[in-house]
Amino acid sequence: MDVVDKQKRSEMMSGIKGKDTRGELAIRKGLHKLGFRYQLHRKDLPGKPDLVFPKYHAAIFVNGCFWHAHGCHLFKWPSTRIEFWAEKIGSNKIRDERNTQAYISMGWKVLTIWECALKGKTRRNLNEVIHTTANWLLYDSQNAEIEGRNN
């Protein structure tokens, strides 16, 4: 691979946001409107959750389906650099599991909102996702996921 290809790839990857994504902002805005207050990306918690609700001992991750190998239509294994991507995405999944176990041991609950719930052909109504999240915060004591329809 020549220098130009590496530079193009670097520029493409730098445009991928790890936080403050469109989906994350929509969830934040909707929950705030319902009166929920939260902290963002706390570095002292495993995985720096997108939203932290200390009052409820809850952390929310808004995960990209590609980066976390979600089994939906938005995830497809790349056809190039197969070993690199298998290692990268595999380590993300292992880290997710390790972080969830850390929250369990701390007495916290974790909600994962998958990208496919917010965009694509299986997306859910945004108000449905926000109200499901609010109900989970208030009433549920278990870890949970919100996926796109038919996942």
Structure description:
With 151 residues, the protein is of the alpha/beta class. The chain has one domain (27-146): VSR Endonuclease (Endonuclease, Chain A). 42% of the residues lie in helices and 13% in strands. The protein contains 4 helices and 5 strands. The protein has helices at residues 3-14, 22-33, 82-106, 126-139, and strands at 39-40, 51-53, 58-63, 109-114, 144-146. The protein has a 5-stranded mixed sheet, sandwiched between helices. Strand 2 (51-53) and strand 3 form a beta hairpin. Helix 2 packs across helix 4. The protein is globular, with a radius of gyration of 16 Å. The protein starts with a helix and ends in a 5-residue tail after the last strand. Residues 9-15 have low confidence and may be disordered.
Question: Any chance you could write out the topology, listing elements then pairs?
Answer:
Layout lengths: L2 H12 L7 H12 L5 E2 L10 E3 L4 E6 L18 H25 L2 E6 L11 H14 L4 E3 L5
Parallel strand pairs: 3-4, 4-5
Antiparallel strand pairs: 1-2, 2-3
